[in-house]
């Protein structure tokens, strides 16, 4: 993999910009008073330094020429040279520095040499390059090549990477080999600067020059390869170094583990950790911390916390604040604040200090959830613990209050921040700007903007983008453009983020020529457009159905080296449906496949929505099943598209069934929050609906259904009340969701009130509605009311279904009214409704509970005769009944039947065996019985 290069490699400093001129200096005039020079050097060599100083004070100042000549004469005595150098009345010349450096290097006085170079490199104004003078002195003194290496390391450590690369190149020309230590310094600094291409080139030239890597080189290169060529390349490199006999230390493996974690392959990182003892390395707390960070990044919080338990079990290691802090931060990032605070108290209980980083993570976590009371409480907790909050603490609170639209509270935190000695930064202003823009208070945002400028706080790209985006969303595009021009005149806003924001605003309102004109101006102003710029303009053309413009922009994008992404193809699919060119959709999908791109949820959303608009429900539904088969979860947009299509075709019952089957509360934004923020939810849904009132209505139905499914009835009722106040017209699905939620939660009066409200607005409750009410009555123990309502169904023109009967039969059985339950089953048959497996299982359960095992078995036989196949629950109910009466023989028969029907695996797992009352031998036969109460 890393073969040494036989070709001549290009000079490294051409990989970077801003190299100093390397013209050779004119040698200093060495002519001076020979007598004075002789007397001065004799005194210095005798180490009579005070006499030398007196001689210079009486005979005149130490001129550069005299200094150069004297240094040459005392070049074998480093102490004499140092004292002479210090006698110079002003900063000595670069030639004198070069002479002294050579002298010190020859004498191996590395500490003095480093001090000399540090002083020179920190000088203001910066000194010109020293290297040409070093070369001149090297030719004169014929020693010491080590001075070049000292300069290389000093430049690298000081961050003067251009100068270090030039010295590295010039040393090779002189036939001097840099030490591995100096190369390591340069490689490390280049890696920190992110100049990974140069890192690889330096490493190759090191090998070409014969400088062998050591364990530190390997560690630095592992980190660089992970970031530049991928973690697989880094792993291969470490293996190669190990085979070459180069030591690979724990730091190198940490780099590899971090590389795996960064790309979401934390299990690979764990395998690296587990392999360390076999190669003679012991994992430390840092090793485990890297594993924790990887799991947190992948949102595997249980595994991350499990690592803490692993460390605790290891007697050689002690868990620290950093590991706990990483897991706590992971929980906070995911809104799991109860888990975060649990770990915080655990830290305290085992004697660890909760530091500011942990407190800030918790503050930020509460702020993201909008739980500002708890967040503010943590600020006081920090102060009580004797820890001083920092700007991050205050800015998190400011941002949290701004997110909730509580701008007065946000400004109060700003005042507190200033009182406690902190300066309001651009981060604070950006949060405030975003808060005002989110509320639509554009005038307030503009006043804050000018206040920033007045106070000398320069807006950054986030400030500009936030304000422009706020104007555009408020429909004030012209004002946004005028402000942008003013900002440009001030020398601000010439960055990619701001340009993309303005272009996006123009595209949203269909002003495509202006958006494309701005693309040209970006090139003129040396702010090259990125892939997002091109994608935004192409998407703008797609929204207007101008596929010619979209394809032209995509071609231009490819021409400058950006490959079209999956997002670009998703826009093209949407555009083709808008342009009524759905016949070309398959061509786009084929091209995606050719480029190695797989359809994602958004792709399927565009396809399903497109075919729904075309009225091809079969194609849309098939695509839904296709995406489900690939493990992709439908989102709110997909669900609403399918339901809308069903509604348009008059298939209301099918639409409601789709909603019940597809809706998952995870697809609804902000629904998981403890306190539902209806305003934010409305903004999110309006964005997805894109102004389509029909789509918005379906989405609100989904939200109400989701809240009821979660048991959050109060939130559902609040959403419904808020929507009615805004003119929302509820339909059968809306009321059915609320009635079912209220009934199951015991709010029967509210449920019946909603039924009456349905009737008053002209909606007819269906059997789903009445089944919910009957279920609620049964659950609340009001069987007589449930039966009464059941008897009224026919007069309302509604026929009961199997669910209606099963609900009542179940209640009769639970209350011990077995005869009534069987009468209802008979009526069910007379009404032409076939009893289901649930009907029979309910009745069998009722018989078993009361010890009527013979009747229960007869009912099982009847069930089978009627071609209703019993399930696991049916058999298990019977087994439980026989357990109570201790009839092992019948239990064995039932297990045999279950095996025949495939309802029980032949080889049961330990958990299943433990749950079952009968233990099995190897032949699968019952051998003894465990009695349960």
Automatic annotation (TrEMBL):
- Protein origin, superkingdom: Eukaryota
Where are PPR repeat segments found?
144-178, 179-213, 214-248, 249-283, 284-318, 320-354, 355-389, 390-424, 425-459, 460-494, 495-529, 530-564, 565-599, 600-634, 635-669, 696-730, 731-765, 766-800, 801-835, 836-870, 871-905
Q: Does the keyword Transit peptide apply?
A: yes
Keyword Signal in the entry? The reply is no
InterPro entries linked to this entry: PPR/CCM1_RNA-binding, PPR_rpt, TPR-like_helical_dom_sf
Q: Which Pfam families match?
A: PPR, PPR_1, PPR_2, PPR_3
Q: Which UniProt keywords apply?
A: Repeat, Transit peptide
Q: Which NCBIfam families match?
A: PPR
Full protein name: Pentatricopeptide repeat-containing protein
**Which organism was this protein described from?**
Urochloa decumbens
> Which lineage ranks, top first, belong to the organism behind this chain?
Eukaryota, Viridiplantae, Streptophyta, Embryophyta, Tracheophyta
């Amino acid at each position: 993999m890393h073969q040494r290069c036989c070709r001549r490699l290009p000079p490294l400093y051409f990989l970077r910009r801003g190299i100093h001129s390397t013209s050779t200096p004119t040698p200093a005039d060495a002519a001076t008073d020979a007598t004075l020079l002789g007397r001065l050097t004799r005194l210095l060599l005798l180490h009579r330094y005070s006499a030398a100083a007196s001689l210079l004070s009486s005979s005149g100042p130490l001129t550069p020429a005299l200094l150069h000549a004297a240094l040459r004469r005392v070049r074998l005595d480093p102490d004499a040279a140092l004292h002479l150098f210090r006698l110079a009345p002003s900063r000595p010349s670069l030639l004198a520095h070069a002479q002294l450096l050579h002298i010190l290097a020859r004498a191996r006085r590395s500490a003095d040499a480093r001090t000399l170079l540090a002083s020179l490199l920190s000088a203001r104004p910066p000194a010109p390059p020293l290297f040409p003078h070093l070369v001149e002195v090297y030719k004169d003194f014929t020693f010491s090549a080590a001075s070049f290496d000292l300069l290389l390391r000093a430049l690298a450590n000081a961050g003067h990477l251009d100068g270090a690369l030039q010295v590295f190149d010039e040393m090779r020309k002189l036939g001097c080999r840099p030490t591995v230590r100096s190369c390591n310094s340069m490689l490390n600094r280049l890696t920190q600067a992110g100049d990974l291409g140069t890192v690889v080139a330096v490493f190759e030239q090191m090998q070409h020059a014969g400088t062998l890597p050591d364990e530190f080189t390997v560690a630095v290169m592992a980190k660089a390869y992970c970031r530049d060529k991928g973690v697989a390349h880094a792993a291969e490199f470490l293996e190669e170094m190990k085979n070459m006999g180069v030591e690979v230390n724990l730091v190198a493996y940490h780099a590899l583990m971090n590389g795996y974690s960064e790309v979401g392959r934390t299990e690979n990182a764990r395998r690296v950790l587990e392999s360390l003892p076999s190669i003679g390395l012991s994992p430390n707390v840092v090793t485990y911390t890297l594993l924790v960070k990887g799991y947190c990044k992948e949102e595997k919080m249980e595994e991350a916390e499990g690592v803490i338990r692993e460390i605790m079990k290891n007697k050689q290691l002690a868990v620290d604040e950093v590991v706990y802090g990483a897991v706590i931060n992971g929980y906070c990032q995911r809104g799991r604040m109860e888990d975060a605070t649990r770990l915080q108290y655990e830290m305290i209980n085992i004697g660890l200090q909760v530091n500011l980083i942990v407190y800030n993570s918790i503050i930020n976590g509460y702020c993201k959830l909008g739980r500002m009371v708890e967040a503010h409480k943590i600020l006081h907790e920090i102060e009580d613990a004797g820890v001083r909050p920092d700007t991050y603490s205050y800015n998190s609170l400011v941002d949290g209050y701004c997110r909730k639209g509580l701008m007065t509270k946000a400004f109060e935190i700003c005042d507190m921040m200033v009182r406690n000695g902190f300066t309001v930064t651009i981060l604070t202003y950006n949060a405030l700007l975003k808060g005002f823009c989110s509320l639509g208070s554009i005038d307030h945002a503009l006043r804050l903007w000018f206040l920033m400028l007045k106070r000398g706080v320069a807006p950054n790209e986030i400030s500009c983008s936030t304000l422009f985006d706020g104007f555009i969303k408020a429909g004030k595009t012209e004002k946004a453009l005028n402000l942008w021009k003013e900002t440009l005149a001030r020398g601000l806003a010439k960055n990619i983020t701001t340009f993309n924001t303005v272009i996006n605003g123009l595209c949203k309102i269909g002003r495509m020529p202006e958006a494309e004109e701005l693309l040209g101006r970006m090139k003129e102003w040396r702010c090259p457009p990125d892939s997002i710029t091109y994608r935004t303009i192409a998407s703008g053309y797609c929204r207007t159905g101008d596929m010619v413009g979209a394809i032209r922009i995509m071609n231009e994008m490819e021409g400058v080296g950006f490959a079209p992404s999956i997002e670009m193809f998703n826009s093209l699919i949407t555009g083709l449906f808008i342009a009524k060119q759905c016949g070309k959709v398959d061509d786009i999908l084929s091209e995606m496949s050719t480029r190695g791109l797989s359809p994602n949820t958004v792709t399927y959303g565009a396809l399903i929505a497109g075919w729904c608009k075309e009225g091809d429900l079969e194609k849309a539904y098939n695509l839904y099943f296709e995406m489900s088969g690939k493990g992709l979860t439908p989102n709110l947009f997909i669900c609403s598209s399918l339901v809308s299509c069903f509604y348009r075709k008059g298939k209301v019952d099918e639409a409601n069934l789709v909603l019940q089957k597809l809706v998952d509360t995870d697809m609804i934004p902000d629904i998981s929050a403890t306190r539902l923020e209806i305003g934010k939810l409305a903004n999110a849904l309006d964005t997805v609906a894109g102004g389509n009132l029909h789509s918005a209505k379906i989405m609100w139905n989904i939200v109400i259904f989701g809240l009821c499914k979660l048991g959050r009835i109060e939130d559902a009722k609040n959403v419904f009340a808020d929507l009615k106040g805004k003119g929302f017209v509820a339909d059968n699905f809306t009321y059915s969701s609320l009635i079912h939620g209220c009934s199951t939660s015991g709010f029967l009066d509210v449920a019946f009130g909603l039924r009456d409200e349905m009737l008053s607005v002209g909606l007819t409750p269906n059997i789903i509605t009445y089944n919910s009410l009957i279920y609620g009555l049964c659950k609340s123990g009001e069987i007589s009311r449930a039966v009464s309502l059941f008897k009224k169904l026919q007069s309302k023109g509604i026929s009961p279904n199997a669910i209606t009967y099963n609900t009542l039969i179940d209640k009769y059985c639970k209350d011990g009214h077995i005869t009534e339950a069987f009468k209802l089953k008979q009526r069910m048959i007379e009404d032409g409704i076939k009893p289901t497996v649930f009907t029979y299982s309910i009745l069998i359960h009722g018989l078993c509970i009361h010890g009527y095992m013979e009747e229960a078995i007869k009912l099982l036989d009847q069930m089978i005769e009627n071609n209703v196949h019993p399930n696991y629950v049916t058999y298990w109910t019977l087994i439980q009944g026989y357990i109570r009466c201790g009839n092992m023989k019948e239990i064995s028969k039932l297990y045999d039947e279950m095996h025949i029907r495939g309802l029980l695996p032949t080889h049961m797992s330990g958990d299943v065996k433990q749950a079952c009352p009968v233990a099995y031998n190897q032949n699968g036969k019952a051998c003894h019985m465990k009695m349960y109460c």
